């Protein structure tokens, strides 16, 4: 199977539209249709219905395989490129709430050991960091999320199933300092179903919390943590955040979660080729997970 055809197929499957896939890929719609037809001819079975556009049972099976195949191809390319790249480089990807004092201290130590180390930091949403680390675009990835105590994070495909824990702290509800809830000893999320929440997909998305029905009073599409905490402090909505971020922050109060009890967890992902113990990425990974 031609990987170019697979990429086109995945775009159509994800967008549910030949025209939207064409826009993403900078192709014409007729070119996308021809590529899908060529892939179907190669496999001898329809993969998509046309009106409406939807996956057939065979198309659903291929979609699951395609994402893994394309990731492996990107990982192979990154691994080969790494062999001809000059030494002394470190690329670290992280989600906004994965940055913390221990991470900063570990990175400072690694950079002090290598005066000429060229370092690049990529801050992005969870899906992008998982993909970048899996394909080798970044040497290491630090991702965060909220989960039950001691449970691993639920990572999107094709996430690393051997991710290592870096930090874990209680999750709290962040409210304005003068909010009536600020004096509560604990709160249950179910009791706040009618409250207004801030949905910040790039920082603390509501859909990753283990409770349906929370109402978003405001959508924040950025990834600046200080903007999110400022919105909470100004009374625009509530947010579930790590305790370390809220405690002591100006204008905020941290209300412990009773039910469900959640923790904020940071995990380390490693690129397939980032296993040379003498490389900065491996030394940084050792410090982060010590």
Task: For this entry, give a set of tags.
alpha/beta, Arc Repressor Mutant, subunit A, D-Maltodextrin-Binding Protein, domain 2, 3 domains, 11 strands, 38% helix, LysR_HTH_N, WH_DNA-bd_sf, transcription cis-regulatory region binding, DNA-binding transcriptional regulator, LysR family, transcription regulation
Q: Overview of this structure, please?
A:
The chain is an alpha/beta fold and 290 residues long. The chain has 3 domains: 3-82, Winged helix-like DNA-binding domain superfamily/Winged helix DNA-binding domain (Arc Repressor Mutant, subunit A, Orthogonal Bundle); 86-166 and 265-289, Periplasmic binding protein-like II (D-Maltodextrin-Binding Protein, domain 2); 169-261, Periplasmic binding protein-like II (D-Maltodextrin-Binding Protein, domain 2, 3-Layer(aba) Sandwich). Helices cover 38% and strands 22% of the residues. The chain is built from 9 helices and 11 strands. The chain has helices at residues 3-15, 18-25, 29-43, 57-84, 101-113, 126-135, 225-233, 243-246, 280-289, and strands spanning 48-49, 54-55, 89-94, 118-123, 140-147, 164-176, 196-199, 215-219, 239-242, 252-256, 263-270. The strands form 3 sheets. Strands 3, 4, 5, 6, 9, 10 and 11 form a 7-stranded mixed sheet that branches. Helix 1 crosses helix 2, helix 2 crosses helix 3 (29-43) and helix 5 packs antiparallel against helix 9 (280-289). The protein is globular and about 65 Å long. The two termini are 43 Å apart. The mean pLDDT is 88. One of its GO terms (molecular function) is DNA-binding transcription factor activity. Belongs to the LysR transcriptional regulatory family. This is DNA-binding transcriptional regulator, LysR family. Residues 1-56 form the HTH lysR-type domain. Keywords: DNA-binding, Transcription, Transcription regulation.
């Amino acid at each position: 199977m031609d990987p170019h055809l697979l990429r086109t197929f995945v775009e159509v499957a994800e967008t549910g539209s030949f025209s939207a896939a064409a826009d993403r890929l900078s192709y014409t719609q007729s070119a996308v249709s021809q590529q899908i037809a060529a892939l179907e001819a190669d496999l001898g079975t329809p993969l998509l219905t046309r009106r409406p556009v939807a996956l057939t049972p065979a198309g659903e099976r291929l979609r699951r395989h395609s994402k893994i195949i394309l990731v492996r191809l990107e990982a192979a390319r990154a691994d080969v490129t790494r062999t001809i790249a000059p030494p002394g480089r470190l690329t670290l990807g992280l989600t906004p709430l994965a940055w913390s004092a221990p991470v900063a201290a570990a990175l400072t130590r690694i950079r002090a050991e290598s005066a000429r180390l060229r370092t690049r930091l990529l801050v992005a949403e969870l899906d992008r960091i998982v993909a970048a680390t899996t394909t080798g675009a970044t040497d290491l990835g630090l991702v965060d999320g909220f989960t039950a105590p001691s449970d691993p994070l639920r990572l999107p495909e094709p996430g690393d199933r051997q991710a290592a824990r870096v930090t874990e702290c209680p999750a709290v509800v962040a409210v304005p300092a003068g909010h009536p809830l600020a004096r509560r000893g604990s709160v249950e999320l179910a009791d706040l179903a009618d409250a207004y929440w801030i949905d910040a997909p790039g920082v603390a998305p509501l859909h990753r919390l283990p409770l349906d029905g929370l109402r978003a009073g405001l959508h924040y599409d950025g990834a600046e943590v200080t903007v999110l905490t400022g919105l909470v402090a100004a009374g625009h909505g509530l947010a579930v955040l790590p305790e370390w971020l809220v405690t002591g922050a100006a204008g905020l109060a941290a209300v412990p979660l009773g039910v469900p009890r959640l923790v904020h967890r940071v995990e380390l992902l490693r690129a397939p080729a980032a296993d040379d113990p003498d490389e900065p990425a491996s030394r940084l990974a050792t410090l982060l997970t010590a």
